[in-house]
C-alpha cells in the first residue's frame, strides 16, 4: 500500500495556552457551545498563532528569525480573551490533537503569573472561575488540563516537574 502525503498533512494550527496563577488559584474559562473543538468545555486561555504575530515585528537575528513567539502569542491571547496581563511565562507541556474538522493542532502549554487587570471575557468564552487544584476537579475540563494544572501546582511549590503523565 502506498501512503499518499498531501500538502495539507503538513499544515497544523499552532496554539499556545496559559495556566494563570493568582493568589494560589488558577484561571479556567468555559468555551462557547458553538466552538468547533471542545464546545462548552472548561479550559485555560490561549489561542492560535497567526503570521501577523511575528511578521509585523523586527527580526531578532540577522538570518531572519523571531524569538519569544509563543510567549508573545500567549500575552496577546490572554489579553484578548480575558483582559489580563501576565508575567513569568514558563513551558509546561505540549500535545497534538485533531479537531472534528480534521485540522491537526499543536498545543504548547505554558504557565504564567497574573500581573494586572480584571477579567473581561471575549465572545468565545462564556464563564470563568479562579479555582484551587482541588476545586478544578469539579469542572468539566478538557482532558489533560487538570494534569497540567497539577504540574503548575508542583512548580509553584518549588518542585521539579517531568513530562505530562495521564492520571
Q: Give the biggest sheet.
A: 7 strands, mixed
Total discrete domains? 1
The averaged pLDDT comes out at 91
The CATH architecture assignment turns out to be Alpha-Beta Complex
Number of strands: 7
Stretches with pLDDT under 50, minimum 5 residues: 1-7
CATH class designation: Alpha Beta
Radius of gyration: 17 Å
Question: What structural category characterises the helix and strand content?
Answer: alpha+beta
Task: Label the overall shape.
Answer: globular
Short description:
By secondary structure, the protein is of the alpha+beta class.
Can you tell me about this structure?
It is a single chain. By secondary structure, the protein is of the alpha+beta class. The protein has one domain (7-156): Nucleoside Triphosphate Pyrophosphohydrolase (Alpha-Beta Complex). The protein contains four helices and seven strands, in the order E-E-E-E-H-H-E-E-E-H-H. The chain has helices spanning 52-55, 69-82, 133-136, 145-156; strands at 13-22, 25-31, 42-43, 46-48, 85-98, 104-116, 125-131. Strands 1, 2, 3, 4, 5, 6 and 7 form a seven-stranded mixed β-sheet that branches. The termini are far apart.
Amino acid at each position: 500500500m502506498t501512503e499518499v502525503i498531501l500538502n495539507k498533512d503538513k499544515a497544523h494550527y499552532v496554539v499556545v495556552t496559559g495556566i494563570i496563577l493568582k493568589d494560589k488559584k488558577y484561571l479556567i474559562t468555559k468555551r462557547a457551545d458553538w466552538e468547533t473543538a471542545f464546545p462548552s468545555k472548561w479550559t485555560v486561555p490561549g489561542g492560535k498563532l497567526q503570521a501577523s504575530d511575528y511578521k509585523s515585528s523586527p527580526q531578532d537575528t540577522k538570518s531572519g528569525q523571531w524569538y519569544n513567539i509563543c510567549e508573545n502569542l500567549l500575552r496577546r491571547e490572554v489579553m484578548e480573551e480575558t483582559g489580563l496581563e501576565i508575567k513569568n511565562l514558563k513551558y509546561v507541556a505540549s500535545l497534538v490533537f485533531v479537531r472534528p474538522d480534521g485540522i491537526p493542532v499543536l498545543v504548547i502549554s505554558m504557565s504564567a503569573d497574573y500581573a494586572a487587570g480584571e477579567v473581561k471575557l471575549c465572545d468565545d468564552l462564556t464563564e470563568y472561575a479562579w479555582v484551587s487544584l482541588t476545586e478544578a476537579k469539579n469542572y468539566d475540563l478538557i482532558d489533560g488540563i487538570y494534569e497540567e494544572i497539577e504540574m503548575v501546582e508542583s512548580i509553584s511549590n518549588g518542585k521539579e516537574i517531568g513530562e505530562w503523565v495521564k492520571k
